[in-house]
Design brief:
Elements lengths: L1 H19 L9 H30 L4 E8 L2 E7 L1 H13 L3 H4 L8 H18 L1 H8 L6 H38 L2 E2 L6 E2 L6 H5 L5 H23 L13
Antiparallel strand pairs: 1-2, 3-4
């Protein structure tokens, strides 16, 4: 508590000192006069310099402008080559998405995986704007930008087809059996208690279990054999071969 209040106390003391003490003698001090002039100059010239830097990079198609995070204190700006910026962003994202490359039906919760796939779909739609702005301006400078734009379109299409086929059906079924805490065993009159049964046994009772597993396998093969050719994610850490 004391550590949190200390900065506030220091700021309050400085403000009191600022308003109560007579600082007028310093107004004639040459050092403080020069410091004030320099400060005013920097306040004037710095925004102009930053604007010129952004304009120069944008017009020469060398940088992409991206607001990474908006806070009360301001925002972060990333300056980079559009291709490098895009590839680095995608690599960082895919490096945490094992289920795009490998599904384990005995451990993975399909409900959570479908949510992750949808977030991946949204991620690529948003990140694609880095390249899409260049394409609309006719500023694709090399074939790599064209290839990245094409593979991103294919990723969005594949995920959209998969989610349209499976997301709504599975999530409705999963919510129903979860809320009711019981799952009917396929081709039997037996029921399983949802919250006391391993997730793989629960999911095996889904009426389109084989179809959704085939869909997951197709997505895994696509990301492993096609997508990763462009982004070089380390798949060995998950025991996945790029030739799988």
């Amino acid at each position: 508590m004391v550590r949190k209040l200390l900065p506030i106390a220091i700021i309050a003391a400085l403000l009191i000192l600022l308003f109560l003490k007579d600082w007028s003698p310093l107004a004639e001090n040459k050092f403080f006069v020069n410091l004030k002039i320099l400060t005013n100059f920097l306040i004037l010239i710095l925004p102009l310099f930053l604007f010129a830097l952004v304009w120069f990079g944008w017009t020469l198609n060398k940088w992409a402008f991206k607001i990474e995070k908006l806070t009360l204190g301001g925002f972060n700006i990333l300056f980079d080559n559009p291709v490098k910026l895009y590839k680095r962003s995608v690599q960082s994202f895919l490096d945490t998405k094992r289920t795009l490359f490998l599904i384990d039906p005995s451990r993975d919760n399909f409900d959570e995986t479908l949510t992750s796939y949808y977030k991946t779909y949204e991620f690529f739609r948003n990140e694609m704007k880095i390249l899409d702005n260049q394409r609309k301006k006719g500023k694709f400078s090399d074939g790599e930008q064209e290839k990245l734009y094409a593979i991103t379109n294919e990723i969005i299409q594949k995920l959209n087809e998969f989610l349209t086929s499976h997301q709504n059906n599975f999530k409705r079924w999963y919510k129903y059996v979860s809320d009711n805490n019981k799952v009917k065993v396929l081709n039997a009159e037996e029921f399983l208690e949802f919250h006391l049964t391993p997730i793989d046994k629960i999911q095996e009772q889904y009426y389109r279990y084989n179809e959704i597993c085939e869909g997951f396998e197709e997505i895994n093969q696509f990301f492993t054999q096609v997508v990763n050719m462009h982004f070089n994610v380390n798949l060995e850490k998950w025991g996945v071969s790029s030739n799988a």
